[in-house]
Amino acid sequence: SLSLGFGSCIAFASYNPTKTDFYKQTIGISIVNSLSSMLAGVTIFAIIGSSAVKNQIPIDELSTGPGLAFIAVSEAIATVPAAPLWSAMFFLMLFMLGIDSQFAGIEGMMTALDDTTLVPKRIPRPAIIAGFCGISFLLGIPFVMSNGLYIVDLFDNFSANFPLMMVAFCEVTAVSWVYGINRFCRDFENMTGYYPNIVWRALWLVITPISILGILFYTLIDQLSNPIKYEQFVGCMATEDGMSGSWTVKANYPAWGWGLAFILVFSSFLFIPVMAVLAYLPKWFGPKYEVDWPLVLAQDEKREREGKDVEMREAPGV
User: DSSP of 2-19, one letter per residue?
Assistant: First the structure.
């Protein structure tokens, strides 16, 4: 729920002044976010438990995923006093949650683009954001079509968990082992005024990377041993006692579905090791393999402008 791995928190933090006590801000955000998640979890599971007892069915047979918000929770809200008011507030909350997530996601992307020369600077920032939102809208249309729930299941299972864990692992590994934990701690002290203690260093160096890898392997094994399935429509099937049965059966996704899942998993983080290898090519095979990175060019231009500004301020009579 903290959107770790998306880059949103890093993007927003990059606008702070250099001498900012981001340590206290981070702790505060984490506490508030965790308490909000606990409150939401207690509320949701209370609704699910109440619905299971009321309908006398196992909890695992209740609606999950999108159906949890639009079916199970909606039915529970309909039974409380002033149900229309609470329903309006609930769906307004869902709408605001989606818009807020979109704000954070776009800002993370735009902050990265601002530091590169991938997009010409003559294109206005609002135009880039509008284009990105338009493309996202078009890509989202299949999700709301008649068969969109199948695509939602694929994205829900493969577009976030594996890629985000790999991105988070690469981030903490790059900072702690490639950039260097001592250099990072000195930067931390220069910005906040205090040096990270042994607990934080142990978390960054060992505990967090191992934990992420453990969760990643567990999720991978669980997905391979219990692959996701979709509800295939087969018509009304009569049971042995002649009563009406289920209209759907569990079926495995076709080959193209798993191909799409493969693309979703690797397209999000595969560029990280690829870019790392390309960056080290000059050190391994000589300067002729050096690539002019848009990010490096943008940073060089930024330093050059800052250097000229300093020279102008230090010039006599200025």
Answer: --TTTSHHHHHHTTS-SS
* Pairs from 51-55 (Cβ < 8 Å, separation ≥ 24): 51/75, 51/76
Direct distance between the N- and C-terminal alpha carbons of the chain, in angstroms, rounded to an integer: 50
Q: Which of left, alpha, beta for 317 (phi over 0: left; psi -120 to 50: alpha)?
A: left
Cβ 116 vs Cβ 107: under 8 Å: no
Contact residues for 184 (Cβ-Cβ < 8 A; gap 6+): 175, 176, 204
Structure tokens at 296: 């490096």
- Model pLDDT for residues 138-181, shown as the tens digit of each residue: 988 988 887 777 888 888 778 777 888 888 888 899 889 988 99
DSSP string, 221-237: HHHHHS--EEEEE----
Cα–Cα distances in angstroms (integers) from residue 173 to residues 3, 6, 8, 178, 179, in the given order: 18, 16, 19, 7, 9
Phi then psi dihedrals of residue 244, to 5 deg: -70, 135
CA distance 45 to 51: 10
Q: What is the pTM of this model?
A: 0.74
Packed helices 255-269 and 148-158: angle between N→C axes, nearest 10 degrees = 40
Cα pseudo-dihedral 47, 48, 53, 55, rounded to 10: 100
CA-to-CA distance for 163 and 179, rounded, in angstroms? 22
Which residues have a Cβ under 8 Å from the Cβ of 104 and sit 6 or more positions away?
3, 6, 8, 11, 12
Bridge partner residues of 250 (DSSP)? 231
